[in-house]
Amino acid sequence: MEDLSEEMGKPRSKRERLATELRRLRDLAGISGRDLAGRIGISQSKISRIESGSVIPSLPEVTAWGDAVEAPSETREQLADLTQAVFVEMHAWRTALQQQTHLQDQIREQEDQARLIRVFQPSLVPGLLQTAEYARRVFTLFDPPYVEGDLPTVVAARLQRQVALYDENRSFEFLITEAALRCRPGPVRLLLAQLDRIASVATLENVSIGLIPQDGEFLVCPSHGFTLYESDGSVEDSFVEVEVTHMRLTARNAEDVALYRRQWALLGDMAIYGEAARDFLAKLSADMRSMAG
């Protein structure tokens, strides 16, 4: 039997490696998906989704899988380690951008799989709401920097993601702090256009935008923005991504996702919506115009 450590050295995601190895072990054992499902106590359809990589099995399920196919103890330990690693993945920006021009298409693929996307942003306007010029200015601030000639492609890819906002079968919720709304990566006119864009998107039936004024009482103070991807499938298909300066962290563990859901609920209690949010944006725009003199 091929050592799983050799499989782990191949250039695939941990999620893909786990799915491939579980399928390989089942095939080697000569057990059908139906039989394995009966031995583990899960549905045959879930076996298929695990082996395709669309669902991540829990550690108890992986342990039961290893028992059912009579995998060697060393392989079972490696499976357990890989499963734990899959639930929390770390993607360094520098490494990712060495392999491709930008990550917008990859992010769009993730968004396309979600029924509901919830975005909290404490420092910048969320990418799905950015105007073209605001996005271009933000990308020029990245470190490591984008190649100048790549910026039009990156901006266009970000704007392409925004088409999803007009799909009435999908839902989007945004919570944005006042600090993020005031962040100005360019002249005042740039921010005024951006605030108008937010007000416009907020009129869509499938989009909710909550604004968090800085003079209110804070119930929670997350230091980084995060995005919750809620799936049409089971709870285990949902996950959260947290963006920090040097990397993007993906957490799929149910307890971790639940933590961010609790934070989302508290942030939502701090936010204003509807007419109050529109009035707030109008006041903020007036403040910006007065600054422009």
Automatic annotation (TrEMBL):
This is Helix-turn-helix protein. Residues 22-59 form the HTH cro/C1-type domain. SUPFAM superfamilies: lambda repressor-like DNA-binding domains. PROSITE patterns: HTH_CROC1. Pfam families: DUF5753 (PF19054), HTH_31 (PF13560).
